[in-house]
Specification:
Keywords: Membrane, Transmembrane, Transmembrane helix. The protein has about 500 residues and is mainly beta. Helices cover about 5% and strands about 40% of the residues. The chain has 3 helices and 32 strands. Strands 1, 2, 3, 4, 5, 6 and 7 form a 7-stranded antiparallel β-sheet that branches. A 5-stranded antiparallel β-sheet has the order 13-16-17-18-19, with no helix packed on it. It has a 4-stranded antiparallel β-sheet with strand order 10-9-8-32, with no helix packed on it. The protein is elongated.
Length: about 500
């Protein structure tokens, strides 16, 4: 009896082993190839060939790092896994995992990333400046380099570039995140801006502006091409808007329908309308187009502006509104920034009607201390409030260099009663005052990310303005936008699906 039990037990073990062997060997690795796309030091592609179709993913880790996982690829013989946001000059271990009821793991293999390209090596973080890497949380900050060669870079809290895309011929004016997990960029040849200081004239000075902001057809921060780039660095499409007769500038976004919504230059010849000897007036508009360049809709400031009541037309004929932002309100209508008017406007996306104006001389009740001047980057933050970067230029408090201040502001708006309650007022240090450009965003951890463009600084502070972290750039960043960790969920995971 005892011998029989032993025989039966041995048979059971043999059957189980045979089943597991068949289970684990039914799908086999035929070939593995590694490549570094664009010769990048911070990404690796792993091409896996199987003998039979099977779902699979890759687990990978550095010597002292956490384990990361690619998303599971569906059942097929050939898989390409994109490993992104790697560290340069670093040893990595990895294994292929067949996604079965009981996961089947390959042996552990390794590769080493190459050294970072010399042009990407920069002292982003200075020891003498605040540099607590925890201030940013687990996201990244995205900046654009508008000179040649132009690039988009995402930097982490330690000052390391974790992702970048470079163009061979163009500068990158601005970039924004899209709803479908890609990046939308505005490109232009270097030196394309048309910008100069005109001869002094009493009318111009009386208008309250110290110099012309932009002139000519292209103006300032204008671009000639649009491109959509996925996180592997692949360009999904590229469009020459210059050939379409469009001058896109300052900002562009993708809406939920995957259409491009962009700020454009727009002009009128007002002599016929007013009878006054005024030259061509340059203003702004918004266009909605598909990714082939077909214009679906256009809105112009001039269609909603009373020329007869405007006393500043001649002095500001080169750049009457200087619209520098397009973003979406919670109801998908547009928020635009007119810094010359010191106002944020809400535009009905369907009718083009101006729904309200926030700021000095606008529709909302505001204390004078809450007025903003030459603002940038208004948007709806994570708390549902309207947030913006107040440059502070031409404000009553900028009578001397010592009094010039820039800050982040946010307001809770009651659109029916037209009241605005200030929620955030986060000043930049006086030395980081910036008359032009800039941005401010509320991070998921409650800290505030601000860009002081003219000083080449990106800062994170608490809500009281105490600086916790500072990024030192070697160029003038138009803005630094926050990239949340979830933006990478289709490529990088902290645990298997």
């Amino acid at each position: 009896m005892r011998i029989l039990k032993i025989v039966i037990g041995a048979l059971v073990i043999a059957v189980l082993y045979a089943c597991y062997y068949f289970y684990s060997q039914y799908v086999q690795l035929v070939n593995i190839q590694l490549s570094s796309p664009d010769n990048s030091a911070i990404k690796e592609d792993i091409h896996v060939k199987l003998n039979r179709p099977a779902a699979a993913y890759v687990e990978y880790w550095s010597a002292n790092g956490e384990h990361y996982y690619t998303p599971v690829k569906g059942e097929k013989k050939d898989h390409i896994f994109n490993l992104l946001m790697l560290d340069a000059d670093t040893d990595y271990h990895y294994r292929i995992v067949l996604d079965r009821l009981i996961p089947v793991k390959s042996k552990v293999m390794r590769f080493k990333t190459r050294k970072q390209s010399p042009w990407m090596v920069h002292d982003w973080i200075k020891e003498e400046h605040p540099h607590d890497p925890r201030a940013m949380g687990d996201g990244l900050t995205m900046l654009c380099y508008r000179e040649f060669p132009g690039y988009i870079a995402m930097v982490d809290g330690k000052g390391a570039i974790k992702w970048y895309w470079q163009d061979e011929k163009m500068g990158v004016r601005i970039a924004s995140l899209t709803p479908r997990g890609t990046i939308l960029a505005l490109l232009a040849p270097v030196g394309k801006d048309e910008f100069y200081k005109p001869e002094p004239n009493k009318a111009f000075v009386k208008s309250g502006m110290g110099y012309s902001l932009r002139t000519g057809k292209m103006g300032y921060m204008g671009g000639t091409e649009l491109a959509e780039i996925d996180l592997t660095g692949r360009v999904r499409w590229r469009l020459n808007v210059d050939k379409l007769g469009l001058i896109v500038h300052h900002d562009l976004r993708m809406d939920k329908a995957n259409h491009i919504v962009a700020v454009v230059r727009d002009y009128i010849l007002p002599e016929k309308q007013t009878g006054k000897p005024i030259d061509t007036l340059w203003g702004d508009g918004i266009v909605v187009m598909d990714t082939t360049g077909k214009v679906l809709k256009k809105w112009s400031t001039w269609d909603h502006w009373d020329l007869a009541k405007d006393r500043r037309l001649d002095s500001l004929k080169h750049d009457r509104f200087h619209i520098n932002t397009i973003s979406f309100d919670k109801d998908s209508n547009y928020l635009v920034s007119s810094p010359i008017e010191n106002q944020v406007w809400k535009i009905n996306a369907q009718t083009g009607k101006t729904m309200w104006r926030l700021g000095q001389g606008g529709d909302f009740q505001l204390d004078a201390s809450d007025f903003f001047y030459f603002q940038h980057a208004p948007h709806i933050n994570k708390d549902g409030d309207l947030m913006l970067f107040d440059n502070g230029d031409f404000s009553p408090r900028d009578s001397s260099t010592a009094n010039k201040k820039s800050r982040a502001l946010s307001f809770s708006l009651d659109e029916k009663r037209k009241t605005a309650s200030k929620k955030l007022d986060v000043p930049l240090p006086g030395k980081q005052y910036t008359a032009r450009m800039g941005s401010a965003y509320l991070l998921p951890n409650g800290n505030v990310l601000q860009t002081s463009s003219k000083t080449g600084s990106v800062l994170i502070s608490d809500k009281q303005g105490n600086v916790l972290w500072e990024l030192n750039t070697y160029f003038i960043p138009y803005r630094a936008e926050y990239v949340p960790a979830k933006f990478w969920q289709d490529y990088v995971k902290m645990k298997p699906d």
